[in-house]
Structure formats: structure tokens, C-alpha cells
Amino acid sequence: MLKVDINRLVRNIHKLAKGLGDVRIMGFCGTHEYVISYYGIRSLMPENVELIAGPGCPVCVVPAAYIDECIKLALDGIRVFTYGDMYRVPGTEMSLSRAKAEGADVKIVYSFLDAIRLAKDGKESVFFGVGFETTQPSVASRLVHKDVPRNLKIISAYRLTPPIMRYILDEVRDIAIDGIIAPGHVSTIIGSNAWKFLAEDYGLPVVVAGFEPEDVLIAIFEILRQIKFNDVKLFNEYSRVVRSEGNIKAWRYVGKVFDVVSAGWRGIGIVKESGLELKSSYAEYDARLEYGLDFKGGRDVAPGCRCADIILGRAKPTECPLFMRVCNPSSPKGPCMVSSEGTCAIWARYGNLNKIRVKTKDFKT
Predict the structure, then answer these.
(1) Structural domain of 322
(2) Do residues 125 and 118 make contact, with C-beta atoms less than 8 angstroms apart?
(3) pTM more than 0.85
């Protein structure tokens, strides 16, 4: 636990914000959005500082076609291993959860190691690989060490985080971003230096931050300080965990097993060099080749759903006409309402809380 005087820190945030005009800070990571919402951090911000949720929900960005293909396999009797948060994400017509209720062979696992253990029974199986850089080494390392049984194939829906940030800054012209809180978990693998391009190429303050509310407040303070004093750079606030070079060994495993390819993001389209496919040397494990899967098509966005805009920072959940009307955590219509890292799910659970769940009850500016 960080030892920080939150009263003093918030007062300094207010002092720095004076005279800056409107400042929009994007928190890339879904867990940062959880911290911001759960602890009421928006209620501590000056009126001219807006905190925007970013694209950091890995299950939210998997195109519907991947889910559709998994459902087809599972209905054909091929066992599909999936993570719990992917289980309820809607495909074009249904989710894996609904498919299981209709007889599909779907099994929830907590990790790739679970899938390996269960697949040792010899049954034809597929692991639905979803996630950002944090989860990719666990699959790559087991393939390198030949621990994966031949009857277990892999669907790679893995995505890379820096390319989507470049995409937002290059292609999404109708939003303004003045600073970025970079993801801490991802950066333990790829390193804080992976985010230098935001400062060097785009002139944006960027802070790699941890996940205590104090971490997020320090990140906001540092971004405002950089703007105030024109001192734009990368700052690693999470240095107690994240190294500049990341986890070199883990990332080498990924490079040995996967090729970087352009890939689709749900409702957004193709993002250059943002996905991973198994190298030809691991083709025997590639479910795409084994079963002739087609990850094109599918309906990514239900009528009226604004998940894609929310992922890109264009809209807030409350600006979606479906939010908490026909779309809620019990009956999600879009992917952002399912995962604990989905912005809509977070706002549905914690967005209406006005009380400040931080270590002060009497903050005054």
C-alpha cells in the first residue's frame, strides 16, 4: 500500500489544473477505469479535468466472428475452453454461455494450464486464446517447451496494446486527448519504454501507473504537471513492478511462437500490426488452419449499441441508448457490459456512486 497524503495530492491536482483549460486524460486499462469509478476519483477532479475510459478490455475487442466460430465448433462436439469473462460475451446470434445451454461443449478454464491438463484426456479440444500482452507468454512458453497435447488446438484472438493507441491518435479525429495513463499489467511484460512513442511522436504526457487509487491520482498529478510546465515525457509511476525493458524472457517466448499481423477489433475494423497468429512452425496447433475457420463477417455491434465508440473514448456509457435500459450486467447486448474490465459493466455497477471511497471524508479545495 502506498503511503500518500491524498488530501494534499488532490489539492495539488486542483492547483495544477487552474488556467490549463479543458484537459482530457485517457486511462487505457479497464482496471484503471474500475479504480476510477469504484473509488469515486472523478468526483475529486477539477471541473476542467475529464477522465476518459480507453480500449483496455481484451474481451470487449474480440470480433463477433471469433465467438461465432467457437460456437460452431462446440456445437459440432469439439470441446472449447474459454475464460469466464469471454463466456457471456455476445456473438452474432448468441454467446458461448447460450450455446452451452443448447448442448455445445464449452468448458470454462482459469488459465491455459487448465486447458492443457484437461486436454490430456485425449478429447478433440480448442483453447480460445483471448487477451493482451499479459496473458500471451503463458501460451507461448508452453508451446516452446512442448507441453501442449496434439489434440489441443489454439484460436489466437490475442491483441497488442500500443497499436490500438496509435490507431486512436491517428484515425479517430473527433476526440481530443491531452494525456494517457498507460496500463500497468501489460507494461510488466512489454516494459514502460513501449509507451515512449506517445511522448516522442505525439507530444503527449504518458504515465505507466499501478492500481491503487493513490497510483491513479499520482498519474493524474504527473500528467497535469507535465502539461503545466511543458515537460512532456514518459513517467513510470509503477516502478515497484514495471521495468523499462519489461519481462524480456516472457516477451521472447511470444516472439518465438507468434507472428505480428494486422487484426480486427470489434466494431472498429482492422488495426495494423495489432494481432498475433501462430507461426508456421506451430501450424499443427492452429485451429484456424485445422478447421478452416473464417474470422471475417459476423455482427460486431447490435442495433443502437455504442460499444465501439466507448472503447475508442468517443462516448460515455450513459450516452448509449441501450445502457441500463435493455443492456445491463444480467442481460448484456454489447461486449462492454460483460467483463469486469468493460467500461459499461463498471459504470453499471459503480458509476452512480457519489460517495468518495478514499482515505478522506472531508476533502476541501
Answers:
(1) 307-346
(2) yes
(3) yes
- By DSSP bridging, strand 258-265 and strand 269-278 are antiparallel
Say yes or no: 190 and 318 in one domain: no
- Cα–Cα distance, 346 to 37 (Å, whole number): 7
Alpha-carbon dihedral sign for residues 200, 201, 203, 206: negative
Q: Which three cell numbers stand for residue 193?
A: 519504454
Residue 83 gets which letter from DSSP?
A: -
SS3 26: strand
Q: Which of 287, 272, 196, 177 is nearest to 235 (CA)?
A: 196
149 and 258, same domain (yes or no): yes
pLDDT tens for each residue of 8-67: 999 999 999 999 999 999 999 999 999 999 999 999 999 999 999 999 999 999 999 999
Could you identify the residue written with the cell 470489434? 266
- Please check whether residue 351 lies inside any domain of the structure: no
| pLDDT tens-digit map of 215-268 | 999 999 999 999 999 999 999 999 999 999 999 999 999 999 999 999 999 999
- Domain end, chosen from 216, 236, 256, is at 236
Encode pLDDT of 121-165 as tens digits: 999 999 999 999 999 999 999 999 999 999 999 999 999 999 999
Task: Say if residue 28 is in the same domain as residue 130.
Answer: no
* 157 lies in the same domain as 268: yes
Cβ atoms of 20 and 232 closer than 8 Å = no
pLDDT digits (tens, 9 = 90+) for 258-295: 999 999 999 999 999 999 999 999 999 999 999 999 99
- 126: Cα within 13 Å, side-chain hemisphere: 29
Using DSSP's 3-state secondary structure scheme, residue 304 falls into coil
Tell me the three cell numbers of residue 55: 480500449
Beta carbons of 181 and 27 less than 8 angstroms apart: yes
Task: Residue 268: name the closest of 132, 155, 167 by CA.
Answer: 167
